[in-house]
Write a structure and sequence with these properties.
Distance between the termini: 29 Å
Order of helices and strands: HHH
Strand content: under 5%
Radius of gyration: 17 Å
Length: 93
């Protein structure tokens, strides 16, 4: 039962982390001017920084902690698929 709860929290953290990164990328891309300097309102930058600090970064840390807890509990550290997945997550982090 504990394994399923940790796995569910891991998936929720993945969705929050990915959603936070996509939201920031979409906002920055949609507000980019077609010509002229690349200047954003200061309030928007403050809001994006706050979003990153409160949602995206804690979700990333939670993904790492819960993912490592799942792999320790499942004894998967010798598996090749986990090594590949850890390299991918490390590149995203």
């Amino acid at each position: 039962m504990l394994y399923l709860i940790v796995k569910a929290l891991h998936v929720v953290a993945i969705v929050a982390w990915t959603g936070g990164m996509l939201l920031m990328a979409l906002l920055l891309a949609s507000l980019r001017p077609t010509h002229g300097p690349f200047v954003f309102p200061q309030a928007l930058l403050v809001t994006l920084r706050r979003w990153d600090r409160r949602i995206t970064t804690p979700a990333m840390v939670l993904v790492w902690v819960l993912g490592l807890a799942l792999s320790l509990r499942g004894h998967w550290f010798g598996a090749a698929w986990l090594t590949a997945k850890l390299l991918l997550v490390l590149a995203l982090s």
